[in-house]
Amino acid sequence: MDARSEKETRKVLEEEYRSLGPMSSQEFFTAVVFLLMVLLWLTRSPGFMPGWTSLFPHHSGFITDATVALLLGLLFFIVPAYGPSRKYEAMISWQEFQASMPWRVALLVGGGFALAEGTKESGLSLWVAELLTPLGDLPVLATIAVSCIIVTTVTEVASNAATITIFLPILSPLAEAIHVNPLYVLIPTTLCTSFSFLLPVSNPPNAVVFAYGHISIVDMVKAGLGVNVIGVLAALLAVATWGVPLFSLDTYPDWAPVLPGFNGTTP
Asked: Greatest CA span in the chain, whole angstroms?
């Protein structure tokens, strides 16, 4: 960029900044609520010290990050948008919320969590675990590769959290049964839950992009298939090279149970 273009760009940015005007009371309130939300998230259960959830010992299991977001978000429906000199009007009305809320994205994400819970309660996860038992007869890297492909396929139709909720209780006992460090299987498969680039239902960003209507599902599949393949290969390469010394994957950890009758397969 030459000096003239840089000067013109700077001028445009300065004009746009000046057009914003001073910070309004509504913007200031929103910034305060956002900072408060982040602070409550970080101090809810920091780990190195008791969080503020310790003030509610009988209900701490029900307090999550979503609890904080919902309670603080409720303030926008109560706090008036203007001073007492004007007619009361909340900062956000229910009509405005309905118009701007991406309900399809919310249903997609919520449906993924419901699918994970239904799979667990119905016993489907146990049935899948039995189907994956023959993987123990394969070389360890082949077992990991098959697991990564399965997880990458499932995460295309379910949320990342739902997929890993389904498969972690399946793959961990599988690794213990063949006497392999569970992290050797769980780390790459967990990374593969993020390789969801094919369908709108794969993750919220995909759904948001698809909702604009400028691309079709076929376009998303064409663009995402190659990225999925590269992602799986990169995860396998990483765990098989520097992942082994970094996480001591070539040794069976003390915290993992030793199951009777394992086949002595090791990385």
From this structure: 78
Q: Give pLDDT, residue 234.
A: 93
Q: What is the pLDDT of residues 52-81, one digit of tens each?
A: 888 887 776 788 888 899 999 999 999 888
Q: State the Cα–Cα distance between residues 111 and 119, nearest whole angstrom.
A: 12
Q: Which SS3 state, helix, strand or coil, does residue 90 take?
A: strand
Residue 264 lies in a domain: no
Alpha carbon of 38 to those of 61, 175, 211, 223: distances in Å? 20, 37, 29, 35
Distance CA 117, CA 192 (A): 20
Alpha helices in 21-137 (DSSP H): 25-44, 65-75, 94-100, 103-122, 124-132
From 55, 73, 100, give the residue that closes a domain. Answer: 100
H or E segment and range at residue 249: none
Whose structure tokens read 């203007």? 82
Tell me: do 57 and 114 sit in the same domain. no
Q: 193-241 pLDDT, tens per residue?
A: 888 888 877 777 777 777 777 778 888 888 888 889 999 999 999 999 9
217 and 178, same structural domain? Answer: yes
Q: What CA–CA distance (Å, rounded) separates 88 from 80?
A: 6
pLDDT confidence of 2, banded at 50, 70, 90?
Answer: low
Tally of domains within the chain: 2
